[in-house]
Amino acid sequence: MTSENLLDVRDLTIAFRTPRGYVEAVRGVDFVIRRGEVMSLVGESGSGKSVTMRALMGLLPETTRISGSARFLGQELIQKSGRGVHGLRGARMSMIFQDPMTALNPVMAIGAQVAEAIRIHNRSISRQEVRDRAVKLLRDVAIPFPEQRFDQYPHQFSGGMRQRVVIAMAIANRPDLIIADEPTTALDVTVQAQILELLRNLCAEYHVGLALITHDLGVVAGMAQSISVMYAGAIVERGSVEEVFYNPSHPYTRGLLGALPHLTGRIERLVDIGGNPPTIFALPEGCAFSPRCAFVQPRCRVERPLLRQVRSAYAACHFAETLPAYPVQEMQA
Amino acid sequence: MTAMGTPQNNNWAKALMSHLRRDFWSALPAYIGGLVVLFWIVVALTAPLWAPYSPLDMVGARLQPPSADHYFGTDGLGRDVLSRTLYGAAQSLPIAVVVVVVGATVGAVLGAAAGFLGGWTNTIVMRLVDVTLSFPPMLLAMAVAVALGPGLKTAAVAMIIVWWPLYARLMQSQVISVKQMDHVEAAVSSGVRRFRILWRYILPLSWTPILINATMDFGQVVLLAAALSFIGLGAAPPTPEWGQMISEGAVNFYTWWIAAAPGLAILSVVLALNFIGDRVRDVLDPRSTT
Fold first, then answer.
1. A270-302 residues labelled b (16+ CB within 10 A) or e (exposed)
2. Rounded to a whole number, what is the distance in Å from the CA of B205 to chain A's nearest CA?
3. Is residue B44 part of a domain?
């Protein structure tokens, strides 16, 4: 049961229609999420993390060109019509959005919104039963006085409480997979910790797979078992969190980790990655990271590296094995 | 409000009362406007009880200035101007209500469909809107009224044709902007049906500008109806309609009283409706801070 592949994404490519023709925002992404596993997708803004997950939820505009395969519970999510996903969406897989201040309908009582999430996929149960279940969900996400809070509106809730409501809606139908798109970015740090704790407990309790989109490596270290690092629409490194954090094989991952402050040792100037990420309108030839890479070789500028096994992880770098040894440091979880 | 726990009592009546008390002075013109409109509605419904004479009978000498017998004088046929003005409310006001309600409904439905469905529906509806709006409103209303034959009903149809595109355009832009909000996307992701998304997640956040515009437009429609009647495309002559009465009075400048009473009636109604419209906008539209 633990090793069952819940979601199997292969060669997912997403192109948006623009006035300058189709532009690929995601270029051949593969990853797997197992039941009960927290898989984290990290990368800077615009690297394609959100677009990848939105494609799986069927939230991209109809003009988007999506190719490749994404099998969820044995069903293909990437279909021409996009209709097949409807029954799964919200029921077997659900999504938690970044900003709880705007993700709730401001003119519906929160209880009604949770109830709606239940009723959409289960039309036969009675009104009272829906209410009972909605109240129980609110209690599960640790909202105090759920019976009284049921009839209140989103503006009467704080940000953290709203995110709990959003989570309650996401787990309403006991999904197998939850996609969380930067669930704590809009919250302050103490609330962030509570929400992550809640998510982690719920995932463990219900044994669901969690795809955690984030750019916060601290969150990854605390929550995830596996990690995929995205850069310019492609996965550049993938593996278990321990392997990737302690022994990063891709120069970009090293750059990300090097930019983190350490709690131990002397406080030094943080190391940044020089330059800016490329725009998807003008990707460099060869490796997309080559213009910023400290270890760049002539080959990197002509040949695009593919994701391949490097030690126990995967990396998309021609010279992953020959990079200088990564300074082993205590990573802060 | 307390941040956590302690359940709040959503007492609507209480909130409304405190709201009314707090903003009494800034809302005063709207209250006066409301009284004026209420007055005219009562008059329209019960004109026979108040009017001293029948609006159609020749009850005195022609072209008499205001006197104790005829407070607003008599017109060119010896009819009592005050009686005709009071009866006129029953002609002029319903037409404005019909035009605004039908126009706003048609416009809002088409605009919402265009904004929500997009694609061809959007293109067809919005081009239709563009074409209609490219005519001067008075000219288009005249052309339609002439084509359909004069009369109050055709004047109403003409005005609806002139008016709906404004609401359609407003609704379309509003629906498009609400459609892109996060909570709509969240609803899509949890599998809420399309129609329900429109009904529960988009429309409740899109209709207030329509209401604001509709109240502001009431006065305009009363004016346009009067204008159509003035040039002979609205009410047919014996009917006591304000615009038509003004046109009769305009023939002779020295018998000013014939046009004065219906003119004041129109002025009071339009002014009152504009006061109400301003207030509705202040309350419903947080962006206007006047």
1. eeebeeebbebeebeebbbbbbbbeebeeebee
2. 8
3. no
A105 touches chain B (CB under 8 A): yes
Question: Beta-carbon neighbour count of residue B136 at 10 Å?
Answer: 10
**pLDDT for A135:** 93
Residue of B nearest to A149 (CA): B7
Under DSSP, is residue A180 helix (H, G, I), strand (E, B) or coil?
Answer: strand
pLDDT of residue B131: 94
What is the total count of domains within chain B? 1
In three-state secondary structure terms, B111 is: helix
Burial of A304 (0-12, 13-18, 19+ CB in 10 A): middle
Q: Which two tokens stand for residue B212?
A: 């604001």
Domain carrying residue B217: 72-284
The predicted pLDDT at position A83 comes to: 55
Q: Which residues of B touch A121 (CB under 8 A)?
A: 191
Q: What predicted TM-score, i.e. pTM, was given to this entire model?
A: 0.77
Does the residue B186 lie in any domain?
yes
A104 touches chain B (CB under 8 A): yes
Asked if residue B106 belongs to a domain, the reply is: yes
Query: At residue A278, does pLDDT exceed 70?
Result: yes
Spatial CA neighbour of B158 closest among B138, B144, B174, B172: B144
Chain CA centroid to CA B155, Å: 15
Mean pLDDT of chain B: 83
Query: Residue B24 above 70 pLDDT?
Result: yes
**Residue A59 and residue B10: Cβ atoms within 8 Å?**
no
Residue from B4, B179, B183 to probe the interface with A (highest A Cβ count within 10 Å): B183
CB atoms within 10 A of CB B4: 11
pLDDT above 70: residue A263: no
**Which residue in A159, A164, A130 sits closest to A144, CA to CA?**
A164
CB < 8 Å to B7, chain A: 145, 148-149, 152
Give contacts of B187 with chain A, Cβ < 8 Å. 105
Q: Domains in chain A and their CATH numbers?
A: 5-224 (3.40.50.300), 231-322 (no CATH)
Determine, for residues B191 and A89 on separate chains, whether the beta-carbon distance falls below 8 Å: yes
Distance CA B15, CA B30 (A): 19
- Can you give the CATH number for the domain in which B139 is found? 1.10.3720.10
Which helix (H) or strand (E) segment holds residue A162: the answer is helix A159-170
- Token pair belonging to A269: 């100037």
Determine, for residues A106 and B205 on separate chains, whether the beta-carbon distance falls below 8 Å: yes
Question: A168-182, B52-66, B264-278: which range is least confident on average?
Answer: B52-66
| Tokens of residue B189, six digits | 């992701």
